[in-house]
Design a protein that fits this description.
alpha/beta, 39% helix
Length: 99
């Protein structure tokens, strides 16, 4: 399934599908636009993501950087196991508030 973002309201965005090098550019554009509209905080929920490779890690870093540039608190929920493993190997896990 091709990845997409769905605005769940109240500052939360649901990500669905597989995140790969083909889908990540559109997700980045949509995600950064979502962060632009945020008031004080925003959340990205990955509970419906199937596969996620290192492109997903790039997406997290871009969204985090965008949020920091606007002083927006950002959280990531239900990160896929593959993504947590990549973050652990690269010592990036402490950068993300993942639940």
């Amino acid at each position: 399934m091709r990845a997409q973002l769905c605005d769940e309201g109240q500052g939360c965005c649901l990500i669905e599908g597989d995140i790969d090098f083909v889908s990540v550019l559109a997700l980045r554009e949509q995600g950064e636009a979502f962060v632009e509209q945020a008031q004080d905080s925003c959340c990205f929920d990955f509970k419906h993501v199937g596969k996620a490779n290192t492109a997903a890690l790039s997406l997290l870093l871009c969204l985090k950087r965008k949020a920091q540039s606007r002083n927006i608190a950002i959280t990531f929920r239900h990160l896929p196991a593959q993504l947590n493993a990549v973050m652990g190997l690269s010592d990036l896990a402490p950068l993300f508030d993942a639940s």
